[in-house]
Amino acid sequence: MDDYTKAHGDFAVFDPAAGRYTRVGEVTLIDEDQKFVERRIHPTGSGPMTLGPLVDWTPDVFFEPSAVAGRFEEVHIPTAYGAAPAWLFEGKTADTWVIHIHGSWTDRSIMFRDVHAFSSLGFTSLVPSFRSDLEVSPLQAESSHLGQTEWRDVESALAYAVAHGAQRIILSGWSMGGTIALLTAECSAYRDRIAGIVLVGPVTSWRKTITAGAEAAGVPALGAGLVMSLLQAPPFAKMLGLEEPINFDALEWVDIPNRVSVPTLVLHSSADQTVPWEISAAFQRANPDTVTLVPLPAAHHTQEWNVSPQTFTNELTNWINKTMLTAG
After folding, report:
1. pTM of the model
2. Residue 199: burial class (beta carbons within 10 Å; 0-12, 13-18, 19+)
């Protein structure tokens, strides 16, 4: 039992012995003495009779693309290093596409929740992989580049979307996917087609995010600064297997006023301890004309949808309807 398994909302457990996922919902009992949590299986009666002694906790409640939408296909997007796998969910609106961009140390399946949240709008959804994903074969990057190189693969996803009829594109990025979305909106050859950006628990300043993480772990700010200095140094970056040194100035949207020119929605929980809410608040203050910040109920990092799927979806669809659809 921990803060994750006690969190209210929709989650799942994976039983590695049985190779099966089970979706769980409402918390019905918390026994602090016995360190025990009881949750209702969702939907009722859908779960197994028993679970193994060890299970993995996950915010992914859909498990596979067919659970999100019936009409999907696996496609392969041409990139600089070869074909990258992606899921394509066909929508009623073929000229408006959403590119769903996952964060670091996860994979594209974590974005099923995002696809689900957008589904009522009828847009076509594309969920790409990129060079630091383990499923890319052969592996293209030994570690994450904090979005600095990964955005180029998302650019390939935009090229695919445009080639298949996309006239308007929404970039939706979670965590580091937010960094990628912001870089893509600035650097893409198709930026004139990017009509909006949606960010969930986004990293809009890697300096501030790393510093906050170090502080939470009890590491002095000097230590965090040293790590960032080393990541910017070519010899050290090469030792870590990085394709190029990290340019933290290029990954900074908080300390640079009015850098964001595209209408942007930020959905973020004030309880996020991985990417603190205060960073998103400062991001909005730096971009008051383009960024809308919506606080969501208390949730762990990028688990805003899980804690309140309806609230998440309502805020998203209301913003899209007001900001983009009414504008034509």
Report:
1. 0.94
2. buried
